[in-house]
Amino acid sequence: AKAFKALTEIPKEFRTKEIEDKIKEMTEYFLIHHLYKKSHNLSEVSKQGWLKLGFPLMYNTDILELLGIFNKLGIKDERLYDAIEIIKQKEADGKWILENTFNGKMQVQIEKKGEPSKWITMMATRILL
């Protein structure tokens, strides 16, 4: 996921054919998995942690970060709908809760786990617009 994100940050005018091909390959990989499911059994979650929204993510990822990548690429695909619905269901009074955090492992606490998150709310709002 982080390699996918990094490649999509390269401005289009600087992407080589190989980079574009890799972005297409990774796009299809994540779409086959509906971002978070097992490809051989789409009724099973592959990575439970990817369903917990967090900030900062460090080396981890979640479905919100992945949806952000697809949003930036302008990709709308029905295989993203499950993940979008999960994001919608997590909304409470126009806000989203910090479910995953590295607080206690960093110099400062960003936000408090279990409380509304400005960062996650901003990212979710961008995805759902």
What topology emerges from the helices and strands here?
Elements: H1 2-9, H2 17-32, E1 37-38, E2 41-45, H3 63-73, H4 81-89, H5 118-128
Antiparallel strand pairs: 1-2
Helix pairs in contact: 3-5
Structure description:
By secondary structure, this protein is mostly helical. The chain has five helices and two strands. The chain has helices at 2-9, 17-32, 63-73, 81-89, 118-128; strands spanning 37-38, 41-45. Strand 1 (37-38) and strand 2 (41-45) form a beta hairpin. It starts with a helix and ends with a helix. 22% of the residues are buried.
In short:
The protein has five helices and two strands, in the order ααββααα. The chain has 129 residues and is mainly alpha-helical.
Sum up the structure in keywords.
single chain; 129 residues; mainly alpha; two-stranded antiparallel sheet; 5 helices; 2 strands; 5% strand; globular
Largest sheet: 2 strands, antiparallel
The total strand number stands at 2
Biggest sheet, strands in spatial order? 1-2
List the helices and strands in order: HHEEHHH
Averaged pLDDT? 93
What is the overall silhouette?
globular
Helix content: 40-55%
What Rg is obtained from the alpha carbons, in whole angstroms? 15 Å
DSSP summary: helix tally: 5
Q: What would you call the structural class?
A: mainly alpha
Cα distance, first to last residue?
A: 23 Å
Unreliable runs: none
Strand percentage lies at 5-15%
